[in-house]
Amino acid sequence: MSTVQIINFTPVSDILPIQRRDFPLADPTLANPLNAVALVDGEWMTLNSSYQAIRASDVTSTSAYASLRCFPLFAERGRYDVQAMSLHKTPLLYRGDYEFDTRIFALASTQGGAAISTILQPLTVGTFTIGSRNYVGLIGHDGTSTNLKPIVGYVTKLPTTNGGQLRFISGWRS
After folding, report:
1. Which of the four, 56, 64, 129, 149, has the lowest number of CB atoms within 10 Å?
2. Is 142 exposed, middle or buried (0-12, 13-18, 19+ CB in 10 A)?
């Protein structure tokens, strides 16, 4: 299991071709670093019907399933520019291919998914516990056609050989 730190989501590939979009938070209190469930970089978000960013899954339950389309958050916990904007807009990696290292993942099998164990294993998004709180991040996908959770990426380096971080590449389009 990973350990959440100040920086949890770092690019491996060039980020210039990635389209980042700032979306207002549906719950502006999530930008406050003193909030017990404040957002951290590397968590996964989706959009509600009001075009506002919300977590892709409910963090109050580790049995919550993720949204069909979700995007990683690219702002560290408590970033001043996010807090300073009137709508508390936060940057999401909206379009483009990328490779990142993340600490926000569950190595063990959870929510009907598979344990993360091999290179190029598909990944999906779910809610899991790190320490004493829940996060929305990467979990293993079992790769079966009966698993309807969307694949958001593929493992490119396991945490055992990457300083405790999971390296992944964004989902390839077939």
Report:
1. 129
2. middle
